Amino acid sequence: MYVDNNGTRDVAISGSARSWPGSALVSALLRQEDAACLTAWYARVPSSSNIADAPSRNSSAGIRVKFLPVGLVRPHLDKLIGNLKLSG
User: Fold this and answer.
1) How far is C-alpha 17 from the geometric centre of its chain's CA atoms?
2) Residue 72's pLDDT is what?
3) pTM (whole model) above 0.90
């Protein structure tokens, strides 16, 4: 997993965060890793090399892949957010 933020990388590696929202998100991340039976390797990649940088800024410039329709993504996001609310 490549991220462009050292804090995000450190939280993902350690499995803990100092704030409630961060802790809830890292818990969800760890549950997803467990569910997928994988051990992720987290590394930082600079924004200029990060394929996710443009989409994170609401831009598709330079992206030559087809995005999933929101109808396929939204149920997963809603479930994740619902789980976060329940755990808080």
Assistant:
1) 14
2) 87
3) no
Domain range annotation of the chain: 2-48+66-87
Is residue 8 packed enough to be buried (19+ CB in 10 Å), middle (13-18) or exposed (0-12)?
middle
Res 88 pLDDT > 70: no
Radius of gyration for the chain, computed over Cα atoms and rounded to the nearest angstrom: 14
CB-based contact 35:83 (threshold 8 Å): no
Give the SS3 label for residue 72: helix
**Are residues 19 and 84 in contact, defined by beta-carbon separation less than 8 angstroms?**
no
The tens digit of pLDDT for each residue in 8-23 reads 899 999 999 999 888 9
Distance CA 83, CA 24 (A): 9
Q: Hey, is 3 helix, strand or coil?
A: strand
Query: SS3 for 40?
Result: coil
